[in-house]
Amino acid sequence: MRYGKELREKLKNGTAIGGHVFLGDPAISEALAIYGYDFIWIDAEHAAFDRPLILNHVTAANAGGAAAVVRVPAWTMEAIKPVLEMGIDGIIIPQTKGYEDVKAALAECLYPPRGVRGFGPRRSIHYNNLDMSEYLKNAEDDIVRFIQVEHHKAVEEIDRILTLDGLDALVLGPNDLASSIGLIGESVHPNVLELSKHAIAQAKKAGIPIGVSIGPNQEAIDIWRGLGVDYFSCGDDISFLHQGAKATIKAIQKGRCRE
Predict the structure, then answer these.
(1) Residue 232 parent element (H or E)
(2) Contact 17/37 with Cβ under 8 angstroms?
(3) Could you give the residue ranges of the DSSP H alpha helices within 85-186?
(4) Bridge partners for 39 per DSSP
(5) Which residue, 62, 124, 230, 233, could crosslink 18 as a Cys pair with Cβ 3.0–4.6 Å?
(6) pTM of the entire structure?
(7) Rounded distance, CA 50 to CA 39, Å?
(8) Which positions ≥6 away from 70 have C-beta within 8 Å?
(9) Which residues lie below 8 Å from residue 59, measured CB to CB, with a gap of 6+?
(10) Residue 213 CB neighbours (<10 A)
């Protein structure tokens, strides 16, 4: 089952909700999908994921009924191509610092003549069980291509970026955007929010969905909802473990104090 086209529609109509996975057990991706996330953000940039583990998370997310979206560690051919062959539903490309970076990154995701992607589908062609002409007809539409906006230069060149072929969605990365202007750790600083407002406004004019990647914090959700993002990728396995464990321990300790 492929969920790329369904995800693209949900991004356009503003109903998509994504969740992040950093821990190794693929059952976490399956569980988050079963809980109701529309897409699972499999984080190969910051988590300890090798290729076989990425593939296991992809199949687990799909098994749970969600789109499998992989954030690659770089926008090189070596990082992008093997992941595309896994039959993913979306790819998130980080650390692009302007128009030329984004152009090169998107080209790696598209077959010629639109791009430079090499040909060698594996799971994406159902292990040779899918007709080649049918695969090629749908190959570009089956994958949602997200570009992260996490550098001030990407915001400065946002209008040119929005004209690029193959761009399906943008996702703001407030922490790295803050770092790019010397405000590391201040993801909701007014200067960061102003840059984000500009990116959001221009994306809406161009008809490209733009979302934000944040943790499960109600105050932050309210801030970004107020700025008008189209979708959220919000919450992750580590945060949920931390919040649940802390809340449970606190509840038990509170009861002890009453004894």
Answers:
(1) strand 231-236
(2) yes
(3) 99-107, 132-138, 152-156, 158-161, 174-180
(4) 18, 67
(5) 233
(6) 0.94
(7) 20
(8) 42, 44, 54, 58, 83, 86, 88, 90, 91, 92
(9) 26, 68
(10) 25
Q: What total of structural domains would you count in the chain?
A: 1
The DSSP element (H or E) to which 12 belongs, if any, is: helix 4-13
State the maximum Cα–Cα separation within the chain, in Å, rounded to a whole number: 73
What is the per-residue pLDDT across 85-127, written as a single tens digit (0 to 9) for each?
A: 999 999 999 999 999 999 999 999 999 999 999 999 999 999 9
Cβ pair 1, 62 in contact under 8 A: yes
Summarize pLDDT for 2-52 with one digit per residue, the tens.
899 999 999 999 999 999 999 999 999 999 999 999 999 999 999 999 999
Q: Which two tokens stand for residue 72?
A: 């690659």
Closest CA to 69 of 29, 35, 103, 97: 29
Residues 6+ apart with CB under 8 A from 89: 2, 3, 4, 7, 39, 62, 67, 68, 69, 142, 143, 144
Residue type, position 146, single letter: F
Tell me the two tokens of residue 226: 């107020």
Token look-up 């994504």 returns 18
Nearest to 135 by CA among 125, 150, 123: 125
Give me the residue label for tokens 């959001």: 200
Q: What is the CATH number of the domain that holds 89?
A: 3.20.20.60
Backbone angles phi, psi at 19, to 5 degrees: -130, 150
Domain that holds residue 130: 4-258
